Amino acid sequence: MRFMSVNKIRTSLVAVSLLLSMVLIPAIQPIKAEYHVPPQDTGLSGLVQMLQKLKTTARMIHTTAHPDDEDGGMLTYESRGVGASVLLFTLNRGEGGQNKTGSELFDALGILRTEELLAADSYYGVDERFSKVVDFGYSKNWQETLDKWKGQDTALEDMVRVIRTYKPDVLVSRFQGNASDGHGHHEAAGILTPIAFKAAADPNRFPDQITKEGLLPWQVKKLYMGAGQNGALRIDTGIYDPALGMSYAQYALEGLSHQLSQGSGGGRVPPGPRYSTYRLADSVINTGVAGPEHEQNFFDGIDTSLPGLASRVGNDTSKLPSLRQDLTEIANRVDEASGALTFQDPSRAGAPLLAGLTQLRKVITQVKNAGLSPAVKSDLLVNLQTKEGQFEEAANLALGVTMDVLVDAGGSGGGRGRRNQQSILIAIPGQTFNVTARLYNRGKQTIDATDIKLETPQGWQVSAVNKNLKAVGPNGNASVQFQVTVPENAQYTRPYFHRNDNQIDTIYKIDRPEYQNLPFPPYPVHASATYKLGADMGEERGVAEVSYTDPMYGQERRPLAIGPAISVELQPATQVIATDRQTPSDITVGVRNNVPGNVSAILKLEVPAGWKCEPASLPVTFTKAGEFNSYQFKVTPNEKREEIKDIKAVVDYNGKKYDEGYTVVTREDLPSFYYYSPAIQKVSSVDVAILQNLKIGYVMGAGDTIPTVLKQIGVNVELITPSELASGDLSRFDTIIMGIRAYDVRSDVRDNNKRLLDYVQRGGTLIVQYNQSMDAFNSGNFTPYPATVDPGNKRVTVEEAPVDILQPKDSVFLYPNKITPKDFDNWIQERGAYFMGQWDEHFKALMASHDPGEQPLEGGLLRAQYGKGTYIFSGYAFFRQLPAGVPGATRLFINILSAGHDQK
């Protein structure tokens, strides 16, 4: 399903940059509105839901560990059914997971999974925040998790900051904080949430948030914990919502289906009751529910009506004597709008909504000027400003008002832009271009467009070059064209966080603190428009976009980003070479141009001392923005020992050096963001012997780079095409390797498994790497003899875990490389996962390993003779080790693919 693009910003994202300077109310902004929202959030259905939100001030934070942990049905019910303002706090971005859809791993996978979660959030109807801790891979207990994260305060600090900023009424943990959570990260999230419940209210905890960031302590009223099937609070997410056309649980699964890298996407549930269960773990209020009666919702006992905010003034009531009456009148405007709403003419609800907005803005001004205590003022303004954004959006939906902000085609030069100039895909520092912002009236009432402004970061030059502000009738529009110049020191559109080593570091370094905890920084250019209907004023916002043509999907749009004039990347980012290699290594450098017009530059490689690079440099030329070229170098190391060295690519253009590159991380069903990496290739020299006469076939699965590494060290490897797998001559390969999760993601692999087994029976060697869908693999009976992947997901998560060689005389450990205990040193992230739990006696277990305090697992590497050939199953994480250049793992994998061929 493709998202419907809606260029609207509910509240100004530019205000996020003021986070550190705002003394009372740091802005929480819905980043998801910068991208795409589902159709149900537009038009009449969107208006109906927004009216529901205007009737309540309920606020909630839901805490989890990873993307896809969230209780989507509950979130959707609370946000869209109850109308609460809901935020999902996710500890990490899933960087350490596996990828079912592509080759992105580590930080690039974290970017992808952030986008997937934002897509899901748009269905749940919630905002999103993260902490700075990283998913370092599967963890079996909370202690290991918190040790890796340098103690509990690393993640707790972020959780407390978000609580103090968002000021929720209730805090809801998905996890229970014990072993039943099934993952050390889950357990840690369940442990940290109750601590944060108390710490957020304690001024002595994380005092810098108060003294330096302008936050105030905040006491959440109630804490709920996940409760399995034994919770006293049962939320029926199976209730049908006419505005959605399905139940909340069903709609949540539509959102979850975008988390494809996790393997989510096929889940569907029929209509009918479905329950999420929680228990009340702590409370600072009397819920009003006594005896055997159960709560019906998280907000029982809390006055969440708009007039109810007046009770929070306490001793300052005399400073705002009319507050309750004013809020009651505003609530009446919401009721009036709901009564006026008709299917034939939703715009009838517009006037009362704008009248309520005008009244609300007056109240906000009074609250700011009333001399209230900082705590009371902060509490009121967070709620009232949330309502302000909701009133604005509701009025726009009712009146059919929307905004379109588009970088003009051919606007890469000065002036108004000429059609024969190039369109911008990404803007660069120093560039001048035009942006046209249009305010559309698609409703039945005439509005008066009073102003359109362009919002950019500080230091940008913006001037209006063509104004068309006027009364806008049905299906009309008003517009302003702006000329924009990006300053030479403009920040690139990139994550505000990074790791120096994505295989070791478990905590992100925060480069721009003003954006910490957000999914991504906001895009740089937005527009805001004000309009009048009678005496009342509305406002609409939009993010500036660029238009481009996708070769498969046609015309597309993407938010305007700022990037380097020249993007440089070494392909691939790692290389593994044999120490006895006699021939130079081929180094490929990809260079992308973002400069309009002709470009002439010089590309060089910086290699370790004593290494030879040919040629010394290469000329780089482009004629237009968006072009991409690859350049080839040959590099010869001078060392014959195992080591890791860096090769760096640098482009010299106009006196400036460019030595990093970006990739656009996206998918057709997702928004886009930019992943940056230095133009460095890590070259790992490995002392490895290879059987030169073997021909290896590789069947790709979910995506890994093992074939690339095998080619680098001199293995004769070839990718097997789907047609060859189905009908080709497989006997021309000595060994066939199945890529990771091949049986999970490829139906043709499952369909042609018999051909693979016949290949083994006739004398070939088949290596099957791990598959995650354990039930599907087991029920498929794909192995030559009975064997089942353990349904308990047997795995060894500690990369330093001891390994025992059970069959020391097997050729896997002798030929062509002698395997010793040292070959299991310096592995990364994990030993392996999805080991076999049971197997026929025809299989023999070759190795055993185990995490501390557990029994040895022998199902990670099995070998069986089948007919004349050899069948090997491996659950060990070679897909992580080989690209990282781990010497011992590389030698062992070469031995495995050589099994059965020692006589050759």
Number of strands: 44
Query: Can you tell me the residue ranges where pLDDT is under 50 for at least 5 consecutive residues?
Result: 1-33, 411-421
Mean pLDDT comes to: 92
Global Rg:
30 Å
Q: What is the count of helical runs?
A: 19
CATH architecture of the largest domain: 3-Layer(aba) Sandwich
User: CATH topology of the largest domain, anyone?
Assistant: Rossmann fold
Helical residue percent?
Answer: 10-25%
CATH superfamily of the largest domain: LmbE-like
Distance between the terminal alpha carbons, to the nearest Å? 52 Å
Largest sheet features: 7 strands, mixed
Overall body shape: globular
CATH class category label of the largest domain: Alpha Beta
Derived from helix and strand composition plus strand pairing, the structural class reads alpha+beta
Set down the secondary structure blueprint.
Elements: H1 43-53, E1 59-64, H2 72-82, E2 85-90, H3 106-124, E3 127-130, H4 142-148, H5 153-166, E4 170-173, H6 184-199, H7 208-211, E5 222-226, E6 233-236, E7 240-241, E8 246-247, H8 248-256, E9 275-283, H9 323-340, H10 350-369, H11 374-399, E10 401-407, E11 432-441, E12 447-455, E13 461-468, E14 471-472, E15 476-485, E16 497-498, E17 509-510, E18 526-533, E19 536-543, E20 545-550, E21 554-559, E22 566-571, E23 574-578, E24 585-593, E25 599-606, E26 612-614, E27 617-622, E28 628-636, E29 643-653, E30 656-658, E31 660-665, E32 673-678, E33 680-686, E34 695-699, H12 706-712, E35 716-719, H13 722-727, E36 735-738, H14 742-745, H15 747-751, H16 753-761, E37 765-769, H17 774-780, E38 787-789, E39 803-805, E40 836-839, E41 843-845, E42 847-849, E43 861-866, E44 869-874, H18 878-881, H19 887-898
Helix pairs in contact: 1-2, 1-11, 2-3, 2-8, 3-8, 4-6, 5-6, 9-10, 10-11
